[in-house]
Amino acid sequence: MNNKKGFTLVELLAVIVVLAIIILVAMPNVLSAMDKARRNALVTEASEFAKIAQAAYSDDAMNGGLTTGNSETGYCYSMDYLINKGYMDKKKGGNDHGSVLLQVSNTGETTYTIWLSNGTYSINGRNVKDITATGKDGGNPAKAYLEDGGNASDNCGSQGTLRS
After folding, report:
1. What's the number of domains the chain is made of?
2. N or C: which end of the chain has fewer CB within 10 A?
């Protein structure tokens, strides 16, 4: 009675080699998708960050909190300030930091210049409209505005009146 059940060493090694090849072929696509997701997340966060800064500016304007500086030079809202004042929540385990410069022209048009980093990419001194614009082909030009690295100014590049 020769009742052997199981796989030979050669068969097991063949399966391992096939799996390794599949992983090697799939890995670049997975890494590329993860990179694109990080970039898109930062662009979305930039837009939300500007909206939150607008809410803080509106509250400050209504409550008389804008005693120094002026609209033309702008008001700088750091992420720490917005978190401490309860406008936004700090991400758990996140290393996001940055600031947004809010400027109101004489005609009432508001411009948002943003400095934001998620630890992998950063946006330094770019207009939010440029970052979030969608091209004619549906593509997002934000990639051109993102920089490698996690450096972003927490004081609007020393522009405007820092809200702290």
Report:
1. 1
2. N
